[in-house]
Amino acid sequence: MADFDLSAALESVRAARVIAVVRAPSPEVAVDACDALVRGGVTGLEITYSTPDAPRVIRELDERYGDSVLLGAGTVTSARDAERAAEAGARFLVSPGTRPALTQAMLATGTLVMTGALTPSELMEAVELGSHVVKIFPASLGGPAFLGALRAPFPDVPLMPTGGVTPDNVAAWFAAGAIAVGAGGDLVPGTALTNGDFDEIERRARLFSGKAAS
């Protein structure tokens, strides 16, 4: 914990801009998908625990890419998940919701912590519990305008919308005040993963990274 630099960690999230949410059917497919994402310019990689043996994937990617990517774990729902991901090399941890005991366990790993919220009350709880970034999920329910409305009472809270982020609206999310965006199915579609169509994932990564940079 003593070595954790929050400012540097937040800056790495801002620099990545797009965090790819990877839900793969196997560890091997997850690694190949991440290779395609990196080739396409997306360097924020969130390996979800719905991917079999997620810590193994994280460890392999950490050995392969080191600090050239922003690597983390998603769908973290237990203290053991948090510990295993951090031990494997995750730099950030993401939970779909916010629970006191889980948030405490995530913070104890000394990594950047992102927990999920949607309403103002949930956002306040996440901040009170110490979340470094609040994941607005599912962001598709309110769109960029909703994120912009949240920024008014919470101007200093880093917000990352996830769910419903597409190449067509990615610029609008940043204009509304997002620190970064989480992109799942529109960036890493399940059909491409199932079919091993990594060229399609790379194509989508180039599209997302281009739109996020503009």
From TrEMBL:
Pathway annotation: Carbohydrate acid metabolism
InterPro entries: Aldlse_KDPG_KHG, Aldolase_TIM
Secretion signal, residue range per the UniProt entry: none
Keywords: Carbohydrate metabolism, Lyase
Pfam families given in the database record: Aldolase
Superkingdom of the organism of origin: Bacteria
Molecular function per GO: lyase activity
This protein's record includes keyword Ribosomal protein: no
SUPFAM superfamilies tied to this protein: Aldolase
Family statement: Belongs to the KHG/KDPG aldolase family.
Oligomeric and partner information: Homotrimer.
Protein name: 2-keto-3-deoxy-phosphogluconate aldolase
Organism: Paramicrobacterium humi
